[in-house]
Amino acid sequence: MLSRDALAHAARPPRVLGPLPVTVVEGPGAFLRLDHVPVPLGDGTRLAARIWLPEDAEAHPVPAILEYLPYRKNDLFAVNDEARFGYFAAHGYAGIRLDIRGSGDSEGLLTDEYVLQEQDDALEAIAWIAQQPWCSGAVGMIGKSWGGFNGLQIAARRPPALKAIVTAYSTDDRYADDAHYMGGCLLTGEMFEWGTTMHTVATLPPDPNSVGGVWKEMWRERLEGFHPQIQTWLSHQRRDAYWKHGSVNEDFGAITCAVYAIGGWCDGYRDPVLRLMEGLSAPKKALIGPWSHQFAMDECEPGPHIGFLQECMRFFAHWLKGEPTGTMDEPMLRAWMQEPVLPATHHAVRPGRWVAEASWPSPAISQRRQYLNDGSLSDDSGPIRTLSWRGSQAAGLDAGAWCAFGRPLDSPPDQREEDGLSLCFTSDPLADDLEILGQPVAHLVVSSDRPQALVAVRLCDVFETGESSLITRGLLNLAHRESHEHPEALVPGEVVNVSVVLQATGQVVPAGHRLRVAISPTYFPWAWPSPEVVTLAVVCGLSFVDLPLHTPAQLDDSLRPFERAETAPKIATELLTNPSFEQVSTKHPLTGVVEVHRRSSDGRVRLPDGLEMSEGGSFSHSVAEGDPLSARFWTQRNVEFKRGAWETRLVAENELRSDLSYFHLESKLRAFDGEDCFFDRSWSFEIPRDFL
To answer: Of 107, 338, 472, 610, whose CB has the highest number of CB atoms within 10 Å?
Structure first.
């Protein structure tokens, strides 16, 4: 058995104040936790890890499961980390949560997402892990979002010890599916809310309990070395080399380890799951549930929840231990086929059932073509006729979240008001149930009266009582109709053929309901408005949408049931103030200005070591009808840490406006050490609009 003293000694870095503490978590499946272990790199930098181990790991080395994030091992993510990695340790794996360079307690600077240095550091860290006396030499990676991204990226670098990854809510294409652009449109709300959060992640102080008295020096280095990442993202408006870096679809063949890709129908990163199944030649499997941007355990809504950790362990046991779990004998793709529910801004559970496809693309998926006729949607094309629609700047207010977290207002409400601001095509009541599985594609013949325009396409389920429930949607910057890398302006009035790929979904549309395709040249705040008001013309009789249809089969009925959701006990916390959420939307009938203001707080929590932490944020956006250049988006994020006399606070702000030719970005960052303003800097950027 590995003694606490031996562990503390083995974890001692070159420069320490004393032995590092080791926590023993008692109970069934007892395990050890090392809260701060420096991981040395070749350039002298030390990354910071939290490690969970089975008690007898040195006598009986075990495989390691790594998650590599900038989200701070000691505080912001500590509670949920314990639930997952404690579970892995209790079941015979070493769990490692590693802070990326420049984040949490790791040294250095965090300059941007997914930089080459991040990958290089991971290769060294994985080699270090594999050489530890408690590790069998086999390493897996797990992660959602950022951790899912770099899991794919690091797998493409082929570190010898890395045998398998679980990548959840991630992407193979950083331009197509991250919180920056969608279909070549600026994904405004996501870029700015996420970007403002990222500004705090890159500049929060390390914990003095981990790094000692150098914490303030490290903090100042982060603040002084910071540059607003939003400016970088906004300066790359087409799919250039910046976005190709870290996009594994540039060479799927580089990944040779096993991949388990996880997605959720309420999440922004669902399409990549299907692309990975199509593009990877390595061993692979996929799971898509009804979930939002959370691991599919007890904290995830909408449910149902599954035994997600057991599912991961079946996969890792096969690839890291060589155990015959049967995980790779199951169908390649398993997905939740959602039953219809009346539209609401939040769903705790989405009813439905599990379905499967043995391969993807699946030969069992059929295509049903629906033609856009004169206001109708049908199997047959009607007379050729052109319908025109002048874009309303208010279209898009009921979009819901691009990347839902199960919060209030994340899900899109009844779409009838949105439908009234769009050009709509509605079918007759369906004679039979349709089971849509995959990505619908709208093939449109259109023209615009302006050289810059976008198109938003929504597919809705219209209930017999009239409610319009969003199934899925897609965006396309029409300058990107041929290429996201080489955009071209439209010729006003010239008819073009475009294909708008809608987000993947699994959805039953029952007999008696109607399908609706709704089209608009505006979708703010998801998409930043075109520079001028656009009138979009759609040629009916030539435009259509292809629906991918799943046929119920015996394979669906043969699926192994998931186990009940389990986790290790979470770290006990004290809730000092409750979370809060409020949103106010206002439409001014005289001025035509539409405004939305939101304020939220995650509450204030005290951890067992006395650390108090709180996070909160605000955003507002507005636009005037008939004036797309009036669009404004503003966000603020604040994070506070306090333990005894140590008290720090960080406030980040970003604001975006535009004119015909430029985006105007204002960024601010303030840091407080107690009551003293420790750092205060503002940036102003003028960024040319590049066919956007």
So the answer is: 338
- Tell how strand 181-182 and strand 185-186 pair up: antiparallel
Read off the tokens for 331: 């169908």
Q: Is residue 334 part of a domain?
A: yes
Exposed, middle or buried by CB within 10 Å (0-12, 13-18, 19+), for 546? Answer: middle
Structure letter (DSSP) for residue 493: T
Within 10 A of 683 (CB to CB), how many other CB atoms are there? 15
Pairwise CA distance, residues 86 & 93, whole Å: 9
Question: Which CA distances in Å does 163 have to 147, 257, 328?
Answer: 16, 5, 14
Position 632 in a domain: yes
> What span, in angstroms and rounded, lies between the C-alpha atoms of 309 and 315?
10
What's this model's pTM, rounded to 2 decimal places?
0.95
127, 218, 163, 237: which is closest to 486 by C-alpha? 237
The average confidence (pLDDT) of the chain is 94
Q: 162: which 2 tokens?
A: 């890395």
AA letter at 262: I
Which of these three, 357, 390, 406, is where a domain ends?
A: 357
What DSSP string runs through 5-53?
Answer: HHHHHHT--SS-SSPPPEEEE-STT-EEEEEEEEEE-TTS-EEEEEEEE
Show the DSSP H helices in 347-445 as ranges. 416-420
How far is residue 106's CA from residue 551's CA, in Å, rounded to a whole number? 51
* Pair (147, 190) in one structural domain: no
Tokens encoding 519 = 């089209």
pLDDT, tens digit, 9 for 90 and up, residues 292-324:
999 987 778 999 999 999 999 999 999 999 999
Rounded Cα–Cα distance for residues 618 and 33 (Å): 36
Q: What is the DSSP string of 503-565?
A: PPEEEEE-TT-EEEEEEES--TTTBPPPSS--EEEEEETT-EEEEEE----HHHHTPPPPPPP
Cα 294 from Cα 305, distance rounded (Å): 11
Domain of residue 624, residue span = 185-231+574-692
How far is the CA of 645 from the CAs of 18, 611, 612, 676, in angstroms?
22, 11, 12, 13
Q: Which residues contact 200 (CB under 8 A, 6 or more apart)?
A: 637, 638, 639, 650, 652
Q: Which helix (H) or strand (E) holds 155?
A: helix 146-155
On the 0-12 / 13-18 / 19+ scale of CB atoms within 10 A, 274 is buried
Residues 6+ apart with CB under 8 A from 484: 175, 176, 184, 238, 239
Kindly compute the dihedral angle of the four CA atoms of residues 103, 106, 108, 113, in this order, to the nearest 10 degrees: -40
Reply yes or no on whether the pLDDT at 1 is more than 50.
Answer: no
Same domain, 389 and 402: yes
Answer whether 153's CB lies under 8 Å from 119's CB. yes
Span 181-225, pLDDT tens digits: 999 999 999 999 999 999 999 999 999 999 999 999 999 999 999
State whether 174 and 204 are in the same domain.
no
